[in-house]
């Protein structure tokens, strides 16, 4: 007779299968995945898949392939259909009221109805052990940020990619769904290098209610979020908010860095609100003036000065690719001056006062000389 030794979770004491390669139960492993960065401090490369083998309802979690403020993404096998999927589990915690869960389900189901070759399809939306989850098609090839980290993307290829993603975003906008968290990590490339946008419509779903405090990472990713998001103006979020995100990703692909990046979330948001992005040509001389103009038009702080739609952005990028005149126009000296005044009202007032004093002094000197030499 074979004797098996009972095994228990080293964290909570729950029984775990004797053949499990893990030393913790499924709930504690998931909590670790959804927890702080210290939980994965022992991993040399946080971006590297973390092998595991555990059950989560109908899903067998095979490895952790991503994590962030909204949750953890696993490569998993859906047991009932015997297929490999990507499973994202969102830890909503104690602030997940029934109304919140209902809103999550309704809006996630709406996002799941989007059928477009450039959108990663959602298979199932559900809730388990206080966490909401959704499964989606598993896309081989990896996230855009991982791909460009290994090798810079040629300028023309980057423009073609963002033009395709912009058309995908426009498709979703026509169906009433905003993304609100467009960033390289949410763009997946398949084996042919074609882009697929993931988490569509779901960034909005995990936003806090007015009485709940959450980190800005949940509301968006600071280096790619639009100013109206950074100040918490949810009423001001619209389709052109996603245009900003597209421009921020394009900026990074062209220059190798996001338009704004501070040492902390606070510093990044401060830069976003108070400064202008550097001209892309200063960071990469291979970028021509027209392409830089397109990129910076997306990143205008005033939403009305951005492209009116993701489609308009896609069409201007396609004009650039075909060497046709673009519709975007460079910001003139007067407009740049107005921006500087809005960002630096105290300095502007001081400068205006100095100019006025200089003018007054000049007039007094001229008047004195006129009297002395009639």
Present the secondary structure layout.
Blueprint: E1 7-8, E2 15-16, H1 26-34, E3 50-56, E4 59-68, E5 71-78, E6 83-91, H2 98-112, E7 122-128, E8 131-137, H3 144-150, H4 155-174, E9 187-189, E10 195-197, H5 202-205, H6 216-219, H7 227-230, H8 239-255, H9 265-274, H10 280-283, H11 289-298, H12 310-321, H13 333-343, H14 345-372
Antiparallel strand pairs: 1-2, 3-4, 4-5, 5-6, 6-8, 7-8, 9-10
Helix pairs in contact: 4-8, 4-12, 8-11, 11-12, 13-14
Structural class: alpha+beta
Rg, nearest Å: 26 Å
* Largest pleated sheet: 6 strands, antiparallel
Oligomerization category of the chains in this entry: single chain
CATH class of the largest domain: Mainly Alpha
Order of neighbouring strands in the sheet with most strands: 3-4-5-6-8-7
Mean pLDDT: 80
First-last Cα distance: 125 Å
How many helical stretches?
14
Number of strands: 10
Within CATH, the superfamily of the largest domain carries the name Transferase(Phosphotransferase) domain 1
Outline, from the CA principal axes? elongated
| Number of separate structural domains | 2
Helix content: 40-55%
Q: Architecture of the largest domain, CATH level 2? A: Orthogonal Bundle
Structural commentary:
41% of the residues lie in helices and 16% in strands. The protein is elongated, with a radius of gyration of 26 Å. The strands form three sheets. The chain has a six-stranded antiparallel sheet, sandwiched between helices. It folds into two domains: 21-137, Phosphorylase Kinase, domain 1; 144-328, Transferase(Phosphotransferase) domain 1 (Transferase(Phosphotransferase), domain 1, Orthogonal Bundle). Helix 4 runs antiparallel to helix 8 (239-255) and helix 13 crosses helix 14 (345-372). The chain is an alpha+beta fold and 374 residues long. It has 14 helices and ten strands.
